[in-house]
Structures are given as C-alpha cells and as structure tokens.
Amino acid sequence: KLLLLLFTASLLTQQAYAQLIPERRNSISVNYAISSSIIPNGNLIGAASLEGLTHTVGISYYRDLSYAFGFETGLRYTMLNMSSSGINGSGQSFDRKFNDGYITLPILVEYNFLRYLFAQLGPTVSMQVNKNEYMNQSGIGLWGAFGGKINGKNMTFKAYPYYHSQSVIAFSKTYGNQSLQNVGFNIGIGYT
User: Fold this and answer.
1) How far apart are CA 76 and CA 51, in angstroms?
2) 76/29 Cα distance (integer angstroms)
3) Which of 12, 29, 45, 99 registers the highest number of CB atoms within 10 A of its CB?
4) Residue 116: phi, psi to the nearest 5?
5) Which residues pair with 187 in a beta bridge?
6) Using an 8 Å Cβ cutoff, are 102 and 80 in contact?
7) Dihedral over alpha carbons 173, 176, 179, 184 (to 10 degrees)
8) Would you state the pLDDT for residue 152?
C-alpha cells in the first residue's frame, strides 16, 4: 500500500510540476527590425562618422537544446540608408548618402529564464548584396539581445532590443576598418 501511495503521489507531483513549466517548441518565425546605425570614424580626428537607419526583414528557426537553452539561426536582409556630412580640408561642406543591402546569417545561443524572458548572444556572418566598395561591411559580427517572448499553442511572439556589430572581423578593408554598429528593436512572429 505504501508503494502504491508513493507512486500515486509521484505522478501527481510530476503532473503539477509539468503544468508550471511552459511548453516550448521549435519554431519558424518572420522578423522585422528597425535600428539606428553608425560607423564611427575613429582613425581621423574631426572626421565625420556615417549615421543612418536600417530596416531588416528575415526568417529564423529556433530549436530548444534544453529547458533553459535554445539555438536560433536564419537569414536576414538589411536595407541600410546612411549619410555623412561635414567640412572637408579646404573648408567646403559636403553631404554624402549611401544605400546598401546585406544578407546576414545569425548563429545565436538563447538563454530562457523567468518563463517569458530570454537573452541571445552569438556571431553573425554578413555579406554585402550590392557593389559599393567604399561602404563594404561584409564580415563576421557579434549579436546580443535581451527581451521577452510569449509561447502560445501554435504561435510564438518575440519583442526585444538588440545590438549588432556587423563586421568585427571584416572580409575587406574599407572606411577606416570601422565596424557598422546597429542598436535597434526586433519583433518576431512564429509558428510552432
């Protein structure tokens, strides 16, 4: 009788505990992000930086590795609009505009905690789509994010601010070897 009582109590405890833990499934998500971007010009004192705005769309795949950790990858297309203005060495003002496009492959580890929160960190690989050699920011970058997500029955929703340094290890040496810095906000809606 004691064994039967312990077995029944064990089953009830496991069932109650399982209801407390939210079920997470693998998911495919569509993402949109907007960010403020800058390429600081650290090599020349008094030289102008490049500043602008980026819009990013993409698709990502998330897979649980354990209860606390997951893996996310996918493809993102970034549309970059930047400008630089200042006064050149002869005292004349200038205003330059640059438009670029990049395809980025993120390889992120995600840490899930407190039921609805997560943090992401990992490398990215970015490749320039057009041939603007002056602005080429193709390279290996670094991604970091912290945000929230809600997992429904068949859907998942993520919203989070992020930081992306696009070419920490550049594939080409352009614009003073400075890395494009993006600080923005991402929204993702996925199907599980």
Assistant:
1) 21
2) 11
3) 29
4) -115, 0
5) 32, 159
6) yes
7) -130
8) 86
pLDDT of residue 99: 85
Do the beta carbons of residue 156 and residue 192 sit within 8 Å?
Answer: yes
Predicted TM-score of the model (pTM):
0.80
Could you please report the per-residue DSSP string of 117-143?
Answer: EEEEEEEEEEEESS--GGG---EEEEE
Largest Cα separation within the chain, whole Å, is 96
Q: How many angstroms separate the CA atoms of 44 and 33, rounded?
A: 31
Beta strands in 65-138 (DSSP E): 69-87, 93-113, 117-128
Q: Which two tokens stand for residue 52?
A: 């602008």
Q: Is 106:76 a contact under the CB 8 Å cutoff?
A: yes
Note the residue count of the chain: 192
Token digits of residue 41: 């010009």
Q: Which range, 4-8, 35-39, 114-118, is most confident?
A: 114-118
